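We modelled each protein-ligand pair independently. The example shown here corresponds to the S-adenosylmethionine entry; the chain sequence is given first, followed by the ligand as SMILES.
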Amino acid sequence: MALTRYLLWCVNDLVGFRVPELRSVAAMLGIQLRFQDPEETEHPYLLVDLEDDESARKILSRTLLVRSCFRLYAAGQSMAEIHRQIRSLIAQDFLSAYREASFRIQVEGFSKTISFQEKLDRVNAFAYLPLKGPVKLKDPDLSLHLFEYYGLDPNRAPEEPYRIFFGRWVCDGQRKQTSKYSLKDRKFIGSTSMDPCLALIMGNLAQVKPGDIVLDPFVGTGSLLIGSGHWGAYVLGTDIDYLTLHGKTKPTRYNQEFRAPDESVEANMKQYGLWNRYLDVVVSDAALPIWRRNLRLDAIVTDPPYGIREATEKIGSKRHKPRPVLGHQVKSHIPSRVQYGLGEIYKDLLRFAATHLEIGGRLVFWYPVNQDGYCEERLPSLSCLQLRANCEQVLSVHSSRRLMAYTKIKEPESSEEPFVDAELLAGFRDRFFGSAAKGTRQERKKTVNEKRQKRLHELHAQLSSASEEGS
Ligand SMILES: C[S@@+](CC[C@H](N)C(=O)[O-])C[C@H]1O[C@@H](n2cnc3c(N)ncnc32)[C@H](O)[C@@H]1O
């Protein structure tokens, strides 16, 4: 089937995530999608070819990063070019379906404000269009849009636009969904609760479909369960931290002294009407998975700890010969923890995904990197997991995190070990904290306390020598 050109007007952030999100959604829905220039990710207008309006509607029913989609009628650098193209389309009767329909023409400038009078002039210049219906500014049958693109910097906008596009509005994307899941109004949040827009995008990169089973092995406050539950999956999670899962950690909201008794992942799912998608959350260590070998998941969507705002720990003992837990101690036993290196975390995650994903299932996770040591060859890999997406979110001048998506393409070979570049990961933490990042949470706390004590001594010494000089 011949494809038709559409204009996608994208939202103005997470620019590197747009094309991967669109590709992932189109592939999941089995829709043919061709980018005119997939490398052009900076400016807000993407040109794509699709079969028809229905394909566009299906894709935008999932995407967060496309604001709206338009059937493109003309593109050029001057209004003369646009009018020439439109006039030749009139000869082909291009708006015949809308001849008697109500309509409007909207003019948008990117990086430049177009005055009311200028807009009116642009609209009046289309008076030759074969439209006999009434003008209707709200909810017309036909909404035509003229976009003028003046570059990305409003302070350096040129006199004439770089590009002009003219098209018919087809549908809007799902960005508005994010306000519904705003962390501001969410019942239960923590210091690392995932931004709702990113949680929904993660569900798209994981190609989550209604009825899928999705696990987050580092579930925390369950933001990613909300993202996947929204797309119709049955969701479950595990976390090592009993206090987090039971809503007993210190509140993270400013001015909140105590957590409400009903703060929990479950309460969040109820708050959003996703209760019927919720399987459960269980206290469990990702390093010691509790699942039967034959558990099969459609997707694993997760944000492991990077050791910045939460500790990277697993159950274990530093003793050469750990003491056994006796029968009567089992109920009240709280296992001790040891450091869980970032390299180990990601190796375990890849191994777990290789074992428990369905063929075709997806693993989606965040991966912290230092920009200077980064190259694609150093990313985690395992031959049964094929890399599908790798989108960067910059955190600071030196560091970023990457949203990675892999598809399981075959069963794993038992002898193969995942490749994870522990050095690259260690570099990330060291850069963030300096040498203080080494060791367990207690050891880091001790280092911080020692530094504080030393500073206090110095202050006391300075104060007493100042008062001696004064007396
Ligand atoms: C970045 S947070 C996840 C935040 C979560 N996405 C949310 O929206 O709240 C990482 C989580 O991993 C948990 N975690 C750390 N080590 C773990 C382990 N060994 N096994 C399971 N969970 C662990 C932490 O308790 C923390 O809740």
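The two ends are 94 Å apart (CA to CA).
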